Amino acid sequence: MKRIAIIQGHPDPAPERFCRALAAAYAKAAEGAGHEVRTIDVTTLDFPLLRTRADWESAAPPPAIAAAQRTLAWSGHVVIVFPLWLGALPALLKAFLEQVLRPGFAVRYRTNGMPVKLLKGRSARIVVTMGMPGFFYEAFYRAHSIRSLERNVLSFVGVDPVARTVVGAIEAKSGKGRARALATMRRLGREAR
After folding, report:
1. Taking the model in full, what pTM does it have?
2. Is 23:6 a contact under the CB 8 Å cutoff?
3. How do residues 10-66 score in pLDDT, each as one tens digit?
4. Strands 77-83 and 123-129
5. Beta strand 115-117 with 107-109: parallel, antiparallel or unpaired?
6. How far is residue 102's CA from residue 56's CA, in Å, rounded to a whole number?
7. For the chain, is the Cβ count within 10 Å smaller at the N or the C terminus?
8. Between the CA of residue 168 and those of 27, 118, 136, 143, what are the distances in Å?
9. Do the beta carbons of residue 91 and residue 18 sit within 8 Å?
10. Banded model confidence at residue 170, pLDDT cuts 50, 70, 90
11. What confidence score (pLDDT) does residue 89 get?
């Protein structure tokens, strides 16, 4: 059985956001299969933006960020759920990742400047909703923001492998289309993938 941290990255706390339904379906199925699940809802956290390198490298993390770090340290698998906004992660989720993945927790540097990945041994799944069709985002835009999150953030701190689920054309999805996406999340939750 796995320990799973779900990062709910939708900045809107409204319960009708489909990202919330996707994360809930995953969590319920994972718990039903015997996995342990903890959720970090980024929109509920109180933390400032990082504005200087010194703050990122050496300032103590705010209490909400320290708690999120404890959850990530506990986990073996991380699920990050968010909507694609202006072609990338919402600003609040990006600010959260900057805060939580600090040196000393997620990475440390050798004297020669080379990084040591401190979150090795964890896997991840990125779940992204978007207005455009998912195949178009993957083919035309080459999933640039997801690839950046995979390579420049998660891989940089040692999270590997990283899988992805793209739920495209979300506003146009019928009840059947949304039901299929929720069924996919339930299957992934049971399998802790």
Report:
1. 0.95
2. yes
3. 999 999 999 999 999 999 999 999 999 999 999 999 999 999 999 999 999 999 999
4. parallel
5. antiparallel
6. 6
7. N
8. 21, 33, 9, 12
9. no
10. confident
11. 95
Q: Is the bond preceding residue 115 a cis peptide, omega within 30 degrees? A: no
Angle between helices 18-32 and 175-191 (to 10 degrees): 40
Helix (H) / strand (E) containing 184: helix 175-191
Q: How far apart are CA 148 and CA 13, in angstroms?
A: 25
Q: 189 — phi, psi (to 5°)?
A: -65, -45
Mean pLDDT to the nearest integer, 93-106: 97
Q: Which of 47, 49, 44 is nearest to 8 (CA)?
A: 44
Please state, in angstroms and rounded to a whole number, the distance separating the CA atoms of residues 105 and 95: 16
Strands 162-167, 123-129: pairing kind: parallel
- Which tokens belong to 85? 């906004």
Task: Kindly list the structural domains of the chain, giving each domain's residue range(s) and its CATH number in brackets, ordered by start.
Answer: 3-191 (3.40.50.360)
E-assigned strand segments in the chain? 3-8, 36-41, 77-83, 107-109, 115-117, 123-129, 162-167
